[in-house]
Specification:
Blueprint: H1 6-52, H2 66-73, E1 74-80, E2 86-89, H3 105-119, E3 131-138, E4 141-151, E5 156-163, E6 170-177, H4 191-194, E7 210-212, H5 215-218, E8 222-224, H6 230-283
Helix pairs in contact: 1-2
Length: about 280
Protein backbone atom coordinates (compact mmCIF):
# COMPACT_ATOMS: atom_id res chain seq x y z
CA UNK A 1 0.00 0.00 0.00
CA UNK A 2 1.20 3.46 -0.84
CA UNK A 3 2.00 5.03 2.53
CA UNK A 4 1.69 8.47 1.01
CA UNK A 5 -1.87 7.95 -0.22
CA UNK A 6 -4.99 9.38 1.37
CA UNK A 7 -6.41 5.88 1.78
CA UNK A 8 -3.46 4.79 3.87
CA UNK A 9 -3.74 7.90 6.03
CA UNK A 10 -7.44 7.30 6.68
CA UNK A 11 -6.95 3.61 7.49
CA UNK A 12 -3.96 4.32 9.72
CA UNK A 13 -5.81 7.07 11.61
CA UNK A 14 -8.89 4.87 12.05
CA UNK A 15 -6.88 1.93 13.42
CA UNK A 16 -4.95 4.24 15.74
CA UNK A 17 -8.16 5.78 17.11
CA UNK A 18 -9.73 2.34 17.66
CA UNK A 19 -6.63 1.04 19.46
CA UNK A 20 -6.35 4.11 21.69
CA UNK A 21 -10.06 3.97 22.47
CA UNK A 22 -9.79 0.29 23.38
CA UNK A 23 -6.80 0.94 25.64
CA UNK A 24 -8.60 3.82 27.40
CA UNK A 25 -11.76 1.75 27.83
CA UNK A 26 -9.79 -1.12 29.31
CA UNK A 27 -7.94 1.25 31.66
CA UNK A 28 -11.22 2.82 32.77
CA UNK A 29 -12.74 -0.59 33.50
CA UNK A 30 -9.63 -1.72 35.36
CA UNK A 31 -9.49 1.43 37.48
CA UNK A 32 -13.24 1.67 38.21
CA UNK A 33 -13.18 -0.55 41.35
CA UNK A 34 -10.38 1.59 42.77
CA UNK A 35 -12.20 4.81 41.88
CA UNK A 36 -15.43 3.53 43.46
CA UNK A 37 -13.53 2.61 46.62
CA UNK A 38 -11.99 6.09 46.81
CA UNK A 39 -15.40 7.72 46.40
CA UNK A 40 -16.82 5.49 49.15
CA UNK A 41 -13.91 6.31 51.46
CA UNK A 42 -14.30 10.04 50.84
CA UNK A 43 -18.03 9.88 51.60
CA UNK A 44 -17.41 7.92 54.81
CA UNK A 45 -14.73 10.41 55.88
CA UNK A 46 -17.12 13.33 55.43
CA UNK A 47 -19.94 11.56 57.30
CA UNK A 48 -17.61 10.76 60.20
CA UNK A 49 -16.08 14.24 60.25
CA UNK A 50 -19.50 15.85 60.54
CA UNK A 51 -20.58 13.46 63.31
CA UNK A 52 -17.26 13.76 65.20
CA UNK A 53 -17.79 17.51 65.65
CA UNK A 54 -20.41 16.62 68.27
CA UNK A 55 -17.66 15.43 70.65
CA UNK A 56 -14.27 17.04 71.16
CA UNK A 57 -12.83 13.69 72.26
CA UNK A 58 -13.47 12.15 68.85
CA UNK A 59 -10.89 13.10 66.25
CA UNK A 60 -10.13 12.08 62.69
CA UNK A 61 -6.61 12.42 61.32
CA UNK A 62 -4.70 11.26 58.26
CA UNK A 63 -3.77 8.11 60.18
CA UNK A 64 -7.37 7.23 61.03
CA UNK A 65 -8.71 4.08 59.40
CA UNK A 66 -12.06 5.63 58.51
CA UNK A 67 -13.53 2.36 57.26
CA UNK A 68 -12.97 0.64 60.61
CA UNK A 69 -14.08 3.72 62.53
CA UNK A 70 -17.27 3.89 60.47
CA UNK A 71 -18.14 0.26 61.19
CA UNK A 72 -17.47 0.89 64.89
CA UNK A 73 -19.63 4.03 65.11
CA UNK A 74 -22.47 3.36 62.65
CA UNK A 75 -25.64 1.89 64.18
CA UNK A 76 -28.01 2.29 61.25
CA UNK A 77 -27.86 3.38 57.61
CA UNK A 78 -30.94 3.53 55.41
CA UNK A 79 -33.06 5.59 53.03
CA UNK A 80 -36.24 7.59 53.65
CA UNK A 81 -38.78 9.11 51.31
CA UNK A 82 -40.17 12.64 51.45
CA UNK A 83 -42.89 11.54 53.87
CA UNK A 84 -40.38 10.29 56.43
CA UNK A 85 -40.87 6.59 55.74
CA UNK A 86 -37.96 4.14 55.59
CA UNK A 87 -37.44 2.63 52.14
CA UNK A 88 -34.33 0.49 52.26
CA UNK A 89 -31.28 -0.52 54.25
CA UNK A 90 -27.61 0.11 53.46
CA UNK A 91 -25.04 -2.55 54.29
CA UNK A 92 -23.03 -1.17 57.22
CA UNK A 93 -20.12 -3.53 56.70
CA UNK A 94 -20.34 -5.07 60.16
CA UNK A 95 -19.31 -8.46 58.78
CA UNK A 96 -17.21 -7.31 55.83
CA UNK A 97 -15.68 -3.85 55.35
CA UNK A 98 -15.70 -4.36 51.61
CA UNK A 99 -19.49 -4.53 51.59
CA UNK A 100 -20.09 -1.09 53.13
CA UNK A 101 -22.73 0.81 51.16
CA UNK A 102 -23.02 4.60 51.08
CA UNK A 103 -24.77 7.11 48.84
CA UNK A 104 -22.27 8.81 46.52
CA UNK A 105 -22.51 12.34 45.14
CA UNK A 106 -23.90 10.79 41.95
CA UNK A 107 -26.72 9.31 44.03
CA UNK A 108 -27.29 12.66 45.71
CA UNK A 109 -27.51 14.35 42.31
CA UNK A 110 -30.23 11.90 41.28
CA UNK A 111 -32.21 12.73 44.41
CA UNK A 112 -31.68 16.44 43.84
CA UNK A 113 -33.15 16.08 40.35
CA UNK A 114 -36.28 14.56 41.90
CA UNK A 115 -36.42 17.30 44.53
CA UNK A 116 -36.33 19.96 41.81
CA UNK A 117 -39.32 18.31 40.14
CA UNK A 118 -41.18 18.24 43.45
CA UNK A 119 -40.35 21.90 44.00
CA UNK A 120 -41.76 22.59 40.54
CA UNK A 121 -45.09 21.11 41.60
CA UNK A 122 -44.84 17.33 41.19
CA UNK A 123 -45.72 16.52 44.80
CA UNK A 124 -46.61 12.94 43.84
CA UNK A 125 -42.86 12.24 43.62
CA UNK A 126 -42.40 12.61 47.39
CA UNK A 127 -42.72 8.86 47.89
CA UNK A 128 -40.13 8.16 45.19
CA UNK A 129 -37.33 9.97 47.05
CA UNK A 130 -34.57 7.81 48.55
CA UNK A 131 -32.72 10.15 50.90
CA UNK A 132 -29.77 8.58 52.77
CA UNK A 133 -29.61 8.64 56.56
CA UNK A 134 -26.63 7.64 58.70
CA UNK A 135 -27.06 7.08 62.45
CA UNK A 136 -23.90 6.92 64.56
CA UNK A 137 -23.05 6.39 68.20
CA UNK A 138 -20.58 9.07 69.21
CA UNK A 139 -19.53 8.27 72.78
CA UNK A 140 -23.06 7.36 73.78
CA UNK A 141 -24.78 10.16 71.87
CA UNK A 142 -26.98 9.29 68.92
CA UNK A 143 -26.02 11.49 65.98
CA UNK A 144 -27.87 11.43 62.67
CA UNK A 145 -26.01 12.58 59.56
CA UNK A 146 -27.95 13.79 56.53
CA UNK A 147 -26.48 15.00 53.23
CA UNK A 148 -27.45 17.91 51.00
CA UNK A 149 -26.63 18.62 47.35
CA UNK A 150 -27.17 21.55 45.01
CA UNK A 151 -25.74 23.91 42.44
CA UNK A 152 -23.01 26.38 43.38
CA UNK A 153 -21.59 29.16 41.23
CA UNK A 154 -19.58 26.98 38.85
CA UNK A 155 -20.64 23.43 39.67
CA UNK A 156 -22.21 21.16 42.28
CA UNK A 157 -21.79 21.72 46.02
CA UNK A 158 -22.70 19.21 48.70
CA UNK A 159 -22.35 18.58 52.40
CA UNK A 160 -23.18 16.48 55.45
CA UNK A 161 -25.01 17.80 58.51
CA UNK A 162 -24.88 16.00 61.86
CA UNK A 163 -28.11 16.37 63.83
CA UNK A 164 -28.80 15.63 67.51
CA UNK A 165 -31.68 13.53 68.85
CA UNK A 166 -34.11 16.47 68.86
CA UNK A 167 -34.03 16.40 65.05
CA UNK A 168 -33.35 20.15 64.87
CA UNK A 169 -29.98 20.98 66.40
CA UNK A 170 -26.92 20.80 64.16
CA UNK A 171 -23.93 19.16 65.86
CA UNK A 172 -21.48 19.40 62.96
CA UNK A 173 -21.15 20.17 59.27
CA UNK A 174 -18.84 19.35 56.38
CA UNK A 175 -19.09 20.84 52.89
CA UNK A 176 -17.37 20.24 49.59
CA UNK A 177 -17.57 21.36 45.98
CA UNK A 178 -16.41 20.52 42.49
CA UNK A 179 -15.28 23.84 41.05
CA UNK A 180 -16.02 26.87 43.24
CA UNK A 181 -13.64 29.84 43.03
CA UNK A 182 -10.40 29.32 45.03
CA UNK A 183 -10.13 31.79 47.88
CA UNK A 184 -13.83 32.67 47.66
CA UNK A 185 -16.62 30.10 47.26
CA UNK A 186 -14.14 27.28 47.83
CA UNK A 187 -13.88 28.45 51.43
CA UNK A 188 -17.03 26.46 52.26
CA UNK A 189 -14.59 23.60 52.94
CA UNK A 190 -12.65 25.53 55.58
CA UNK A 191 -12.97 25.20 59.35
CA UNK A 192 -13.76 28.87 60.01
CA UNK A 193 -16.94 28.55 57.94
CA UNK A 194 -18.01 25.04 58.92
CA UNK A 195 -17.33 25.85 62.58
CA UNK A 196 -20.31 28.23 62.61
CA UNK A 197 -22.83 25.39 62.29
CA UNK A 198 -22.61 23.42 65.58
CA UNK A 199 -25.37 24.63 67.89
CA UNK A 200 -27.50 26.12 65.12
CA UNK A 201 -31.00 24.79 64.51
CA UNK A 202 -33.31 24.15 61.61
CA UNK A 203 -36.18 26.62 61.68
CA UNK A 204 -39.74 26.09 60.54
CA UNK A 205 -41.68 27.18 57.49
CA UNK A 206 -40.18 28.03 54.14
CA UNK A 207 -36.90 29.45 55.46
CA UNK A 208 -35.51 26.71 57.66
CA UNK A 209 -31.89 27.77 57.31
CA UNK A 210 -29.94 30.62 55.71
CA UNK A 211 -26.35 31.48 54.85
CA UNK A 212 -26.34 35.27 54.58
CA UNK A 213 -24.20 38.25 55.38
CA UNK A 214 -24.57 38.99 59.07
CA UNK A 215 -25.60 35.44 59.89
CA UNK A 216 -29.32 36.15 59.52
CA UNK A 217 -28.87 38.84 62.18
CA UNK A 218 -27.77 36.35 64.80
CA UNK A 219 -30.72 34.00 64.27
CA UNK A 220 -30.24 30.45 65.49
CA UNK A 221 -31.13 29.12 62.04
CA UNK A 222 -28.51 31.09 60.09
CA UNK A 223 -24.75 31.52 59.68
CA UNK A 224 -22.59 34.25 58.23
CA UNK A 225 -21.87 34.13 54.51
CA UNK A 226 -18.35 34.06 53.11
CA UNK A 227 -17.13 37.53 52.26
CA UNK A 228 -16.83 37.96 48.50
CA UNK A 229 -18.65 34.70 47.78
CA UNK A 230 -22.27 35.78 47.92
CA UNK A 231 -23.54 33.46 45.18
CA UNK A 232 -21.90 30.33 46.61
CA UNK A 233 -23.07 31.25 50.13
CA UNK A 234 -26.65 31.81 49.03
CA UNK A 235 -26.58 28.61 46.97
CA UNK A 236 -25.40 26.61 49.98
CA UNK A 237 -28.06 28.19 52.17
CA UNK A 238 -30.73 27.28 49.62
CA UNK A 239 -29.37 23.73 49.39
CA UNK A 240 -29.46 23.21 53.17
CA UNK A 241 -32.87 24.85 53.42
CA UNK A 242 -34.36 22.66 50.67
CA UNK A 243 -32.90 19.31 51.70
CA UNK A 244 -33.67 19.81 55.40
CA UNK A 245 -37.31 20.37 54.43
CA UNK A 246 -37.50 16.91 52.88
CA UNK A 247 -35.73 15.29 55.82
CA UNK A 248 -37.99 17.05 58.35
CA UNK A 249 -40.78 14.41 58.31
CA UNK A 250 -38.30 11.66 59.21
CA UNK A 251 -36.38 13.75 61.76
CA UNK A 252 -39.62 14.78 63.48
CA UNK A 253 -40.87 11.18 63.66
CA UNK A 254 -37.55 9.95 65.00
CA UNK A 255 -37.38 12.72 67.62
CA UNK A 256 -40.97 12.04 68.74
CA UNK A 257 -40.23 8.33 69.06
CA UNK A 258 -37.12 9.07 71.13
CA UNK A 259 -39.08 11.40 73.39
CA UNK A 260 -41.87 8.86 73.86
CA UNK A 261 -39.35 6.12 74.67
CA UNK A 262 -37.59 8.38 77.18
CA UNK A 263 -40.87 9.27 78.89
CA UNK A 264 -41.90 5.61 79.03
CA UNK A 265 -38.53 4.65 80.51
CA UNK A 266 -38.82 7.42 83.10
CA UNK A 267 -42.35 6.34 84.01
CA UNK A 268 -41.22 2.71 84.30
CA UNK A 269 -38.33 3.71 86.52
CA UNK A 270 -40.60 5.82 88.72
CA UNK A 271 -43.06 2.93 89.02
CA UNK A 272 -40.29 0.52 90.00
CA UNK A 273 -38.96 2.94 92.61
CA UNK A 274 -42.47 3.42 94.04
CA UNK A 275 -43.01 -0.33 94.14
CA UNK A 276 -39.67 -0.87 95.85
CA UNK A 277 -40.46 1.83 98.42
CA UNK A 278 -43.90 0.33 99.08
CA UNK A 279 -42.38 -3.12 99.55
CA UNK A 280 -39.81 -1.69 101.96
CA UNK A 281 -42.54 0.04 104.01
CA UNK A 282 -44.57 -3.19 104.22
CA UNK A 283 -41.54 -5.15 105.45
CA UNK A 284 -40.93 -2.54 108.14
Amino acid sequence: MNTNSNTYTVIYSTVLVVVVAAVLAFAAMALKPMQDENVKKETITQVLTAAAQSDADVTISEDTNVMEMYVEKITDAFYVDGNGNRKGQMNMGKEDLNKIQVATTADLKNQNDIIKKIEAGQADLLSSLELPVYVLDINGKEITVIPCYGAGLWGPIWGYLAVTEDGKTIAGAVFDHKSETPGLGAKITEDFFQGQFPGKKFGEGEERFAVVKGGAKGAENGVDAISGATITSQALGKTINTWSKYYEPYLSKAAAAKQAAAEMAAAQEAAEEAEAEETENVEE
